[in-house]
Model the fold of this input.
Amino acid sequence: MNIYKIYFNHTIEILDKFKLDSNYNFDNTEILKKITLEPPKNTINGDMSTNLAMLLSKNLKLNPKEIANKLKPYISKLPNVLTVDIAGPGFINITLKQKTWSDCIKKILLDPDNWDKQDLGKGKRINLEYISANPTGPLHAGHARGAVFGDALASLLNEVGYKVIREYYINDAGSQIEKLVESSLIRYDECNGKNIKEIPVGLYPGEYLQEVGKALLKKYGKNLKQNSKEDIFNLVREVSLEVIMKMIKEDLYKLGIEMDVFTSEHNIISGNLLTDILTILEEKNLTYFGFLDPPKGVDPTKWERREQFLFKSTVYGDETDRALKKSDGSWTYFATDMAYHLDKINRTNGDLINVLGADHTGYISRINAAVNALSNGSISIDTKVCALVNLMENGKPIKMSKRAGNFVTLSDIIDAVGKDVIRFIMLTRRNDQSLDFDFKKVMEKSKENPVFYVQYAHARCNSIFKSAEILEENLHIENTDLLSGKDEIELIKFISQWPRTLELAAKNHEPHRICYYLIELSSMFHSLWNKGKDNFNFKFIVEKDIKLTNARLLLVKAVALTIRKGLSILKIKPIFEM
Done:
């Protein structure tokens, strides 16, 4: 039951009736795209505000306030409207009767499983690729953010009716795999008894590769190097990837993440997809041999001008055309990426979302162009870039981990604070904003720690039921009209915003909105509870007034229910006692 959606639909009906009654002739199309009905930023401006009058101003060539006054009688007749006011340049502010909000609690609790249900996706498929860390070592702190963001977004989209495919792209080709094989062979020699003094510069020094060395020794004994150079490479590559991907999957599982699909870059290159993209692009006359200008920041006098085989990505809004083949005739990484996205398009038959690290911002326009070209514009792609995570300990940066070689592993963080803390904290900033993760602060039991603050709100709800000596499920859903205090009504209004928050978070691919909402809801609830400590009139449990107590406990139940719904989307378990 999205009350804002209900009154939004009423507003659309008013637009049609107003147009008919006034004999105006204008196109609704653009207005319907831009019309809003939302809670005003300041609660003194009522419960809902719409920009309808300002949108009509251009079409009718009238002052927005004049149009707003013409619309006012229509809006005043809507169900449970108390007042309609005109503000600012022509906003129409609507205040609803108190009964609207007390009825909201009743409707929420009569259908707790479905009151916020939405079917935005209507069963459409979305491929969501996230994490996709190079399989050259365990996941580190930087990967944690993209992992949590992508997984929370997948959960959010599933919640509103999409069928989401969670995908991990294994970058198991290229120079980094060659370095991995060489590094693994050193660890194999070490397990064979050779004294390894120092890992050569440029290779992977992490002690985690000792596990690869042990696996190689167990599988091939001391005879591995008796094979041909090519066979040694393939055998070591296979075992290295198997061991490291097992580490990665175990860490993801500890973080509450299970992927649906693992796709190998090596298999993409080995298959026919590169030929397929070439066929598609050539049929559309989107390839040519030509020369590229130097990249930004490169001295033109030091730029080697050479003919390359290019994709006309500028046709689709990219800033420059892109090379598909290197000067030696081999495919570029971008060409391989195009082939991979064609594979995703073919398998998914739906839209794509990529979650990338902070260093991939320049990648967005070129892959957008690629998907547009390969799908004839029928598939959309949204690329979300996750900014850096700064690991801190009591305000001081953490940089090193001996076991990993040069980074703090995700496993280290999970062991230190637990998955639920990581999942929540990683979503307390927009994905494109940098985030400080302070080990001391995230474990504090204070208002300054948002995950504690939200969990404490849920535990406090449970504590109130215990004090009232009644089970949450045994409350009678009645007498909600007794919820009439200003703070109670404001809390109900905010609870009623939950379906709208869910919708906006899903539409904008912004799971952090769920965190923000839960923090604000918890703050309002804690504030009301604290007032009850000093003022008898605000207590949830009112001795000698069973009806009022029951009504207020219904409000507590609605708070607890909403917190659980939000935490469930984030895949965090609510705490019942603290």
